[in-house]
Amino acid sequence: MSIEHSDRYDDIIHLPHHQSRKHPHMTMHNRAAQFMPFAALKGFEATIDETARQTKARVTLGPDEQIALNDKLIAVLGQLSSEPWVVITHFEPDGRKDGGEYMVTEGVIHHFDQAARVIIMDDDSRIALANIVDIQY
């Protein structure tokens, strides 16, 4: 640096730092936060994960399988007073995308809601008749 430029700020170099009368002094924490990195693609990773998540297609039972399942349901529902222990395989549709997941629920059937066509288990879980693919007792 040349000598002529070093004298340039001599008149202000020792003055006190300016304090605004309109705006309060920013804390060091808030000042540092201005320079922190940010997520430019917020939610992008969750979208990628959701797209990659696999679901299964609903299997359609054939006529013979539907008749066999219907016979099992009639037999089990006829024994509700004896509280039969059942193992029900059922399809649960995915709320966000096509397909769903096959679940196995074990327990005692507490009630059958004929109007809603729903089996209510002893743990208050509900299984729609249309989603049942197998029942064992």
CATH A-level architecture of the largest domain: Roll
**Shape field:** rod-shaped
CATH class of the largest domain: Mainly Beta
**Structure annotation, total helices:** 4
- The rounded Rg comes to 34 Å
Q: Looking at the chains present, what oligomeric state does this protein adopt? A: single chain
Beta-strand percent range = 25-35%
* Series of secondary-structure elements, N-terminal to C-terminal: HHHHEEEEE
User: What is the CATH third-level topology name of the largest domain?
Assistant: SH3 type barrels
- The secondary-structure class comes to alpha+beta
- Domain count, please report it: 2
Question: On the 0-100 scale, what is the average pLDDT?
Answer: 89
Strand element count: 5
Largest sheet: spatial strand order:
4-3-2-1-5
Helix content: 10-25%
Distance between the termini: 93 Å
Largest sheet: 5 strands, antiparallel
How is this structure best described in words?
By secondary structure, the chain is of the alpha+beta class. The protein is 25% helix and 26% strand. The radius of gyration is 34 Å and the shape is rod-shaped. It contains 4 helices and 5 strands; from the N terminus they run ααααβββββ. The protein starts with a helix and ends with a strand. It has helices at residues 3-6, 28-33, 44-52, 63-77, and strands at 85-93, 100-113, 118-121, 126-128, 132-136. The protein folds into 2 domains: 3-52, no CATH class; 63-136, SH3 type barrels (Roll). Strands 4-3-2-1-5 form a 5-stranded antiparallel β-sheet.
